[in-house]
Specification:
Blueprint: E1 2-7, H1 14-26, E2 29-35, H2 46-56, E3 63-68, H3 72-79, E4 83-88, H4 91-107, E5 112-117, H5 127-135, H6 146-159
Parallel strand pairs: 1-2, 2-3, 4-5
């Protein structure tokens, strides 16, 4: 089975990568799809995120990175994929994720969303929190892969 794991990944964290690793073991093919939304104010450009994600998935033969804009249902249809993966960290994620999953099903009745529970050690992790800790020179080594740590330090230095 082929699946799409979509997100902003601004930046990708070890929590996202935990989901990627588990998906790569369970599914034949995984597309990590970065939302390219010019209206969203992201720290990393889509090209920067693409490069970062590509270096994070080198060890997985069945995972590839792509970008999409517009509706997820249209992208999934274009790829011929009917299953989307999302991670759930806590009950607070549920309402937003439920709304998205139901809206996507309204837009395309073929499209199902499967949820993987985040591993407990990553349940508190978010891209915004990592960016905040990095901004104040906190230690983010446990939360993100090396490539993200370096990219964040580089960005933050540029901002100072
Ligand atoms: N580990 C760590 N963090 C996680 C996580 C996990 N397993 N799962 C989610 N998160 C966090 C992220 O760190 C991020 O944190 P932040 O809010 O602090 O930045 C947040 O959850 C969500 O980010 P992400 O997982 O990158 O996804 P998203 O919510 O930005 O992505 C899309 C949403 C792309 C799936 C959705 O907007 C979409 O499909 N857009 C296309 C347009 C469309 O079709 N719209 C209609 C949809 S109904």
């Amino acid at each position: 089975m082929k699946v799409i794991y979509p997100g902003s990944f601004d930046p990708i964290t070890n929590g996202h990568l935990d989901i990627v690793e588990r998906c790569s073991q369970k599914f034949d093919k995984v597309i990590l799809a970065i939302l390219n939304n010019s209206a969203k104010n992201t720290l990393f450009t889509v090209d920067e995120r693409l490069k970062i994600l590509e270096s994070c998935i080198e060890e997985y033969d069945n995972v590839e990175v792509d970008t999409f804009s517009g509706l997820l249902v249209d992208y999934a249809r274009e790829k011929g994929i009917t299953t989307v993966i999302r991670g759930l960290r806590a009950v607070t994620d549920f309402e937003y994720e439920l709304q998205m999953a139901l809206m996507n099903r309204e837009l395309d009745s073929e499209l199902d969303t499967l949820f993987l529970m985040s591993s407990s050690q990553y349940a508190f992790l978010s891209s915004s929190l990592v960016k905040e800790v990095a901004k104040y020179d906190g230690d983010i080594t446990r939360f993100v892969p090396k490539v993200v740590e370096e990219a964040l330090h580089h960005k933050m230095k540029g901002d100072k």
